[in-house]
Amino acid sequence: SQQGEEDPQALSIQEGENATMNCSYKTSINNLQWYRQNSGRGLVHLILIRSNEREKHSGRLRVTLDTSKKSSSLLITASRAADTASYFCATDGITGNQFYFGTGTSLTVIP
Amino acid sequence: NAGVTQTPKFQVLKTGQSMTLQCAQDMNHNSMYWYRQDPGMGLRLIYYSASEGTTDKGEVPNGYNVSRLNKREFSLRLESAAPSQTSVYFCASSGWSVSTEAFFGQGTRLTVV
Predict the structure, then answer these.
(1) DSSP secondary structure string, B25-51?
(2) Is B30 on the interface with A (CB under 8 A)?
(3) Count of alpha carbons within 13 Å of B22, Cβ hemisphere only?
């Protein structure tokens, strides 16, 4: 399988705290993306980081990428109850024609 | 714009029945994808179509067939449904390459009894 893995599988924090989730993947990549999935809904794109980038910011999101370790992290700062969702990383695979998703981190933000 | 539209939203099949899941996108995207999502397994790629007229197998293609009817539409067919195909199915589309984001439909919850 080319799937990556997110860690932790589940995370519960208080509103206002920061949430960090990690993604490990198996193959060389061109890009890595993070998506959010609210319960019962489709996935929504959050941020894309290219293989030649080490860090990227978008609003309260900060993504890092370490291609030597084949890992990425997503940091959500000052979390809100509305951030409660599952978060998935996605890589573009060896041929670059597909998106391969990890197993996801379920984040619960307690008001 | 509707984005990616999947039909139906829910379906119950008996083992051995067939059905087709429909997907259409209105964003003029070249690439389209079918995924299944199972608890603890994340999303697994079933088939994808990099452009109109081409389809390729993903990670878990067995038991499924696809048709890229035109640039807008990409259907997934279960010829003889099995309980192991009980899952939530998502269709997605993206631009020219995976350097762009994927847009997802709302999913089809399929139960095979």
Answers:
(1) ESS--SEEEEEEEETTTEEEEEEEESS
(2) no
(3) 7
Tokens of A20: 């960090």
| Cβ-Cβ contacts under 8 Å, A99 against chain B | 33, 45, 92, 94, 98, 102
Cα–Cα distance for residue pair A49/A18, rounded to 1 Å: 20
Which of A 12-71 lie inside 8 A of B, CB atoms?
30-31, 33, 35, 40-45, 48, 50
A5 contact partners, CB below 8 Å, separation of at least 6: A23, A24, A25, A102, A103
Any idea which residue has 């609003």 for tokens? Answer: A59
**CA Rg value for chain B:** 13
Mean pLDDT, residues B23-29: 95
Task: Look over chain B and give the mean of its residue pLDDT values, rounded to a whole number.
Answer: 92
**Residues A62-80 pLDDT 10s:** 999 999 999 999 999 999 9
Return the structure tokens found at B72: 């807008």
Q: Do B98 and A44 touch (CB under 8 A)?
A: no
On the question of pLDDT at A94 being above 70, the answer is no
Please check whether residue B112 is in contact with residue B16, taking contact to mean a CB–CB distance below 8 angstroms: no
In chain B, pLDDT over 70 holds for what percent of residues? 96
Is the Cβ–Cβ distance between A94 and A100 less than 8 Å?
no
In chain A, pLDDT over 70 holds for what percent of residues?
A: 93
